[in-house]
Amino acid sequence: MAVDTVLEPRSLYFEDLAIGMSETLQRTVTDAAVRAFADVSGDHNPIHLDEAYAAGTLFKTRIAHGIFSASLISAVLGMRLPGPGVIYFSQTLNFRGPVRIGDVVHVRLEIAELMPEKCRARIVCTCKVGDEVVVDGEAWVKVPSRLPKPDAPKPDAKA
């Protein structure tokens, strides 16, 4: 059985980032997690919650909300790459396959582009179950910088 990743917070500054840096997360999709997600989101579509209903669908069984897998991308952004302090500007998502109860979702984020003038990063996001890509896309984020802002007032040199 796969072991879920525990994300310890790590704050990276823009100056710490490099193209090709990556971070991963592994999460097992449980019945309890899907039901909690339904309660939090308000999406109680029976394909997520009712096995008898789901048996009559294309997938033949219950599936997790697509945005459940996408929320794991947010977890990696907010906790590790780049971590606390990041501002999420946009996300494209392509839902390519179902995620079933009991599946292990493997999330991988990789820095694809850096915009130093705005401290922004484009991050390629992939969620897989086994070898199958179930969600992919790109995120744009603003990353805190160690450098002072050009328009910030300079500290008074007089003491």
UniProtKB/TrEMBL annotation:
Q: Which Pfam families match?
A: MaoC_dehydratas
Kindly list the GO CC terms recorded for this protein. Answer: fatty acid synthase complex
One MF annotation (Gene Ontology) recorded for this entry: fatty acid synthase activity
Looking up InterPro entries in the UniProt record yields: Fatty_acid_synthase (IPR003965), HotDog_dom_sf (IPR029069), MaoC-like_dom (IPR002539), UPF0336/Enoyl-CoA_hydratase (IPR050965)
Q: Where does the MaoC-like domain lie?
A: 25-118
Q: Which controlled-vocabulary keywords does the entry list? A: Lyase
In terms of superkingdom, the source organism counts as Bacteria
**Family matches, as CDD domains:** R_hydratase (cd03449)
State any GO BP term from the record: fatty acid biosynthetic process
Q: Do you know which PANTHER family this protein is assigned to?
A: HYDROXYACYL-THIOESTER DEHYDRATASE TYPE 2, MITOCHONDRIAL, HYDROXYACYL-THIOESTER DEHYDRATASE TYPE 2, MITOCHONDRIAL-RELATED
Protein name as it appears in the record: (R)-specific enoyl-CoA hydratase
Source species of the chain:
Rhodoplanes serenus
Gene from which the chain derives? phaJ_1
